[in-house]
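agent: user wants the full assembly modeled, not chains individually. Plan: 1) parse entity lines 2) check alphabet per entity 3) run joint structure prediction 4) return tokens. Steps 1-2 passed, two entities, 308 residues total. Proceeding.
--- entities ---
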Amino acid sequence: MNKLTLVVARSLVMAALFAVPLFADDDEALKKDLTAVIALQGLPCGQVVAVTELAKDDYAATCKDGNKYRVYMNADGRVVVEKRK
Amino acid sequence: MLPLAGCASHKTEPQVAQPQPQTVATQPETPEPVAEPQEPAASKPTASSPAPGEAAPAGTPATAPVPSGATQATKPATTPAPNGANPAPKAATKTAPPVARAPTPPVRPPKPAAAPVASTVAAPLDLAALKEKLKATKAIGVFTKISLKNQVDDLMKQFSDHYQGKGKTTTMPELRRAYDLLLMKVLSLLQDSDQTLASEVVSSREAIWGLLSDPKKFATLQG
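--- prediction returned ---
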């Protein structure tokens, strides 16, 4: 393995280390956002603890209290929160 | 509330970079109930007590007139001390303290009640600036902004229906309740992360309601 390969490998590792917290920040912001959206609809949740992106502007959120919701934007531009089983 | 209507929209609007002039008087109908109830409260006791100028000095025990249960021992004490600078005679101070202490608290001048009124007079409502700030704030997430915008639009429609007498019309108190509730939601989202904007929203609260509750002003907003 030559020197150049080692340098590239190290760079990639460093980039990955810095990238993970950034993704984590985004994820936390999204959870907070969805928590607020669900609360705005007056639905029980407490706090969103897990989010899965189903499509663009379409998320499946799992709440701390066990409730699950689908939060998405419909064709009219309205944010809709649907309870899931 | 109206600025929220555009907080989630993506269209760019000309930035209104007015620095929120702190002039007074766009809010003539802003109720200031705080001052008025306190005024009588402060002045009521003074009616039964002597004027503030008389009572304040060291001669308070001597000058304070006793409303009802005045013992005869205190009456002589009040008459010889018209001037607060003169200390009351020793004989009077012996008997007076228990009776005269009670009226001293109400002698408070009503000035503090007037001070908050002056400070809470709202600045003129700059809807465009408020709207831009709500759009730009990072305290509210994108989805939340869209959701709030939906709710603002719903409320605007309720107002519109109310003024046009369409469908199931809601009463003005109901609209006010809905408006207050929506504003509370906005404030709850802002207050931890963007306190300055939260306080701006609070200070604009009555001015915005003034626009919404007046059919003519509301019509201009719709257009």
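agent: reporting back. Confidence is low (pLDDT under 50) at residues 8-100, 110-119 of chain B. Chain B is about 60% helix and 0% strand.
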